[in-house]
Amino acid sequence: MSTLHRSLRRRAAGVVAAAGALALVVGCGGSDDSVTGGGKKDGKVTITVGLYGVMGFKETGLFEQYEKEHPNVDIKAEVAGDEQTYYTALQTRLAAGKGLKDIQGIEIGRAKEIVDTQSDKFADFSDVKGTDHFLPWKLSQITTKDGKVLGLGTDIGPMAVCYRKDYFEQAGLPTDREEVAKLWEGDWKKFVEVGRTFKKDFKGGDVAYTDAASGLFNAMVYGYPEQYYNAEGDLIYKTNPAVKEAWNLAADAAEDGLTAKLRQFQPGWDPGLANGTFATAVCPAWMLGHISEKAGEANKGKWDVAKAPKGANWGGSFLGVVEQSPVKEEAKKLVAWLTAPEQQTHIFEKQGSVPSSQEALESPEVQKVTSEYFDNAPIGQIFGEAAKEIPDKQVLGRKDGTIKDTFSQGLALIEQGDASPDEAWQTTSERIEKAVG
Fold first, then answer.
1. Same domain assignment for residues 172 and 308
2. pLDDT, tens digit (0-9, with 9 covering 90-100), for 142-183
3. Helix segments in 101-226, DSSP class H
4. Phi, psi (5° rounding) for residue 269?
């Protein structure tokens, strides 16, 4: 499915130069005295939308469809490629109280900070009818303690494992995706054991079992309801058994030489995909597009997708409406329509972003979607089932993204031989404390 090539760009910083992205976001707020740029005039409603990356609404024609069905509505969407720059500008506009869009995209890593510090700036969706189709845990991520729902969900990031069939064959391992999934079913420790077998038996040259220890760490941590913070907002990564378990297993994989030492989305990872320097990568749904694009046509059909040892969620977004929008009610209706099961199904079919709508996930249209690049893997079924295994309760923290990146850097110290696991843990802890205060 070639349109999957676009799906990762939502996550990848730098798709658009940072300066250009900042200019795009900051310069889209209308006149100096405008809150959002939207409004009503001569029976016409203008709704402005601020997005980042490729969220699919514009790219798959949904904005045009809505305008066609609602002739009095004019949608003006502007998109920044770099989410980090987008969010920095959004914070500035929220503080200033103007220059915003009627509808603003919110990445999952920012949801907790929005809930804790900006809840008064966003409209409440708890009274909007027809929004009971989401996965139980999705809207809880954007809901305040007093029940205010600050946005509706777009996509999610259920987990799988992408693997090279040709490399598994050369190592004497099964290649059928169902048989591969059985190798590590139920336990990430089994995934690492398969790696040890691969390293011992592979006869095809200098190929690592997996790309990086950090990918394994993230996949494990995101399979638990709590990661770095508890529900009260306290940092718990030092005492959370889930984090320590993930660290220890990822560190073992690094020390045993099972990784290619190529952190995902960092320099060297894309060439690693193109040159085939590793046999597996832990991959949430949105990563398939990036792999297929960077691995290229030469590797088409060599990659496949198997069920992960355990369910997890890595990624996802929301659409919120600014409280001071002069077209708040019209914007809420548009958001409800864009995130309805039918539209989420449409985006998955065209682009590969997995729906956060439980109704859409269970629909025949989603279930039948396959990926030609990944040897016609039934990704609708694989990721639909993976979504059901995601913990119902997901505790988010204000600095989740920063902490995740810091752990990735710490595991890289082990991979590069610059520190022992204990030394790397100490360094990582010190960096986290410094970063989050």
1. yes
2. 999 999 999 999 999 999 999 999 999 999 999 999 999 999
3. 108-117, 165-170, 177-183, 188-201, 213-221
4. -70, -45
If you average pLDDT over residues 250-277, what whole number do you get?
A: 94
Structurally, how many domains does the chain consist of? 2
Helix (H) or strand (E) holding 159: strand 152-164
Contact 4/289 with Cβ under 8 angstroms?
Answer: yes
Residue 287's pLDDT is what?
Answer: 85
Beta bridge partners of residue 96, listed in sequence order: none
Q: Is-contact 213 250, C-beta < 8 A? A: yes
CATH number of the domain bearing residue 217: 3.40.190.10
Strands 152-164 and 313-321, by their bridges, are antiparallel
| 57 found inside a domain | yes
Are 405 and 258 in a shared domain?
yes
pTM summary value: 0.78
Task: Identify the domain containing residue 213 by its residue range.
Answer: 158-314+379-436
What's the confidence (pLDDT) of residue 245?
97
Does residue 254 share a domain with residue 394? yes
Residue 373 maps to a domain: no
Tens of pLDDT, residue by residue over 110-138, are 899 899 999 999 999 999 999 999 988 89
Amino acid 179 reads E
CA-wise closest residue to 115 among 148, 67, 76, 85: 148
**Contact status, residue 241 vs residue 234, Cβ threshold 8 Å:** no
Distance CA 131, CA 153 (A): 10
- Rounded distance, CA 356 to CA 156, Å? 5
Is residue 235 assigned to a domain? yes
CA atoms in the 13 A half-sphere facing the CB of 245: 13
In a domain, 263, yes or no: yes
Residues 6+ apart with CB under 8 A from 176: none
Regarding whether 251 and 115 lie in a shared domain, the answer is: no
One domain, residues 153 and 198: no
Q: Are residues 276 and 152 in the same domain?
A: no
| 309 in Cβ contact with 186 (< 8 Å) | yes
